[in-house]
Amino acid sequence: MSSKTVLITGSSAGGIGHALALAFQKHGATVFATARSISKMQDLASLPNVHLLALDVTSPASIAAAAKEVEAKTGGKLDVLINNAGVQYVMPALDVDIEKARDVFEANYWGPLRMIQAFKQMLVKAKGTIVNVGSAAGIFYVPFQSQYNASKAAINQYSETLRMELAPLNVKVVTLVAGNVSSNMVNNAPPPTQLPEHSFYKPIEKEIAKEEAFTNMSTSKFAEEVASEVLNGASGRVFKGANSGVVKWLIPFLPQWIFDKLVVANGRGLGKMPKLS
């Protein structure tokens, strides 16, 4: 059983972070489950060795307050930091609202950077592990979610660079390349896609608004596999979730025209888009 301390961002019920909190607690870790609203993870409050903290990864003040509380409870050490909080945004690239796009990067990219800098002393002291939840979307460019794809590509690259830089400090970094996992992340996304009246993609607006038809791995299975890998000393890119094996072993070797064909076939109706004459 583990006696490690673990902090997880984005732990609202129904999501990956919540399942990770349950998995690490099951393995005996002391878990700091965080979310913007404590009420959204209240079911975790009765579990032994689980502490609930209000935390908004887009707010430096909120992060600083959480870091101070964790430091007081752990004696200044944190074994595992899991940067899971994130948001989705579905919109054709030509129609992206810049402010909403900024919000995506604030949560998905700048949030983890803020967290790592705020907790770096505790992580180095513990010779700990940072887990950055990236995505297969950072490799497999799904149409109509360019900003999400870009934010996850950014965190994937940042995370692997960070791994090399932190090796001399005895801190491991896991880049968790997540495939398809059941999650409530869509609840944190901007309102359902409504295209601007001038959009070229109006003919397929209803198709764009549909959820992807990929098979998902359950959050509990995903979380258990991740917890086991992290507690066993994982480092570097770890592929988990439905279809992650395809992204790891097949996509890098496919000719671009085949890759593009697969993407269009599964890309929220892009294949149904009438071509301009």
Automatic annotation (TrEMBL):
<dbReference type="Pfam" id="PF00106">
    <property type="entry name" value="adh_short"/>
</dbReference>
<dbReference type="InterPro" id="IPR036291">
    <property type="entry name" value="NAD(P)-bd_dom_sf"/>
</dbReference>
<dbReference type="InterPro" id="IPR002347">
    <property type="entry name" value="SDR_fam"/>
</dbReference>
<comment type="similarity">
    <text>Belongs to the short-chain dehydrogenases/reductases (SDR) family.</text>
</comment>
<dbReference type="GO" id="GO:0004806">
    <property type="term" value="F:triacylglycerol lipase activity"/>
</dbReference>
<dbReference type="GO" id="GO:0006654">
    <property type="term" value="P:phosphatidic acid biosynthetic process"/>
</dbReference>
<dbReference type="InterPro" id="IPR020904">
    <property type="entry name" value="Sc_DH/Rdtase_CS"/>
</dbReference>
<dbReference type="GO" id="GO:0000140">
    <property type="term" value="F:acylglycerone-phosphate reductase (NADP+) activity"/>
</dbReference>
<keyword id="KW-0560">Oxidoreductase</keyword>
<dbReference type="GO" id="GO:0005783">
    <property type="term" value="C:endoplasmic reticulum"/>
</dbReference>
<keyword id="KW-0521">NADP</keyword>
<dbReference type="GO" id="GO:0019433">
    <property type="term" value="P:triglyceride catabolic process"/>
</dbReference>
<protein>
    <submittedName>
        <fullName>NADPH-dependent 1-acyl dihydroxyacetone phosphate reductase</fullName>
        <ecNumber>1.1.1.101</ecNumber>
    </submittedName>
</protein>
<dbReference type="InterPro" id="IPR057326">
    <property type="entry name" value="KR_dom"/>
</dbReference>
<feature type="domain" description="Ketoreductase">
    <location>
        <begin position="4"/>
        <end position="184"/>
    </location>
</feature>
<dbReference type="GO" id="GO:0005811">
    <property type="term" value="C:lipid droplet"/>
</dbReference>
